[in-house]
From TrEMBL:
The keyword Metal-binding applies. Residues 529-551 are annotated as: Disordered. The keyword Signal applies. It holds the Pfam family Tyrosinase. It comes from Pinctada fucata. SUPFAM superfamilies: Di-copper centre-containing domain (SSF48056). This is Tyrosinase-like protein.
Amino acid sequence: MTSLLTLFVHACILIGVNSMLQPKRVKDTYENSCLHNAVFNFNSSSTNYLEPKCQTLFMDKYTEMKNFLNYTDMQMNYLYSLERAVLRKYEKKQNGRHKRQTGMMARQECRTLSDGARGALFGAIVDLKTPTGGMSRYDTIAGMHSFAAYRYAHLGPSFLGWHRVYLIMYEEALQEIRSDVVLCYWDSTLDFLMPGSTQRFTVAFSADLFGNGRGNVINGAFANWQLPGGGTLRRNIAADRFPGPPPSLTRPGIVDLIATDPSITSHTQIVRGGTGFTDPDTGRVHTWEQEHDNTHVWVGEIMQDVVAAPGDPVFFFHHTFIDYGWELFRQKINPNGNIDLRNDYPNVGGFHAPDAPMFGFQGITNRDGYSDEYTRMYAPHPTCSNGCGGSTQFLYCPDGGPMANPNRRCISREINSDLVPAAAVAPAAAMQAMAFGPEATMARFGPAATMGMFGPAAARAGFSPATTMGMFGPAATRAGFSPAATMGMFGLAASRALFGPAAMSRDVPAVGSARVSVEATDTVAVRSALSEPPPPVSGIQFQSSFSDSRI
């Protein structure tokens, strides 16, 4: 009798709770439907296409977001027009089921793009940054990653879906400039695999790709990139973050774990707010979001600042790789594409609740971000078996070929982007760089670097063992100079030695007038790039969850 009474009481409680929740579910359903319709049919000049109740709701949300971001109506209209374009392009259904997007160009690792494709993409980014009508479209999109968005887009399961939709909006903006461009991803595991402490010399941060990695960005497509709050874009890659622990790039073992481990089969196991998985290197509970944090810290400067990070274009290349890693996991748990992964969205509350609207994307819920509708196609990461994605200019197979270990990842090539051609700065600086002697070398590089330029420690000054021979005679290449370059620094052939074929760096052909060069050292440019004091640390900072002892 007692057990029956207990069951009856429990049933009454469940019915009561359900009846309390039912009005909220109805309200959430109406709000989501209203906001979706408002954005899908967005008209910047009128909301008359909405019923009065929905008009009021939409305008309340519009005003709330406008105030959060401190944006003008022009900026708000631009964002809503982009979201409208995204909804209309990506919301495709077949037999009532969501399907993965097809027919679009696959996103590739940035180093595997052809020179033309990479130039078109980077050019579109620069165009997006250039103000039109007093508004920078790039800065408007970057500003969405605001403090207000932080609570909705980080520290929970919506991190994955929110950033996926964010990338799609950014890509849509670029395609409005050039329809043939797609985002590329920066697979930072290829840089993590660089031996010893050579990560700081990765070719990813050179003039042909993202621009130099230390100090003000003074070469490449994003040279002299101005930040919304003032100042020039700066980086400080692969540097100790004292008093904090050294940072780390994305570890290949973590990518492989979430992509292949058969025991990790639910989103709850890879997101914050869930159970997580065990980090094999630390033994601690870990998530894909935490692994993502590490690379933000490794790049440094504004990339380490949660709110300001999108001000560096590298943000979007990094997040495209995080999305790629997530897609590997999704394909593992849904190989046939016949499961609606929105149903695998973790059941959490608050800002990350499944049916809560995404901040900044009023027509999309957190759960919708897990839909295959927003999935993009990816080319596989560069391995020995796929010929490093066709990029022998920037990558190499460590085993010497596909027969040795076909599944092994390729590794980034090395170049010292702290050393730049004098021609990229000014004629006066070029003359000064040509003329310096031993004393000037000491003054510009310091005792340690001077010793490195004249002896076995040359590698510490940024030169590989292959270039070791000394600076003033038969051993000239110990400092990274060919005999022609050595003569050029002290004679009439100086300009040829500094800027001609003899002065071009190893492995990577010269491209453009501001080509990074190991031999053609303009210390004035280096000093200028590193001299501006870094901005004061403010706001929320990404934190490393793993320390790479090689840094």
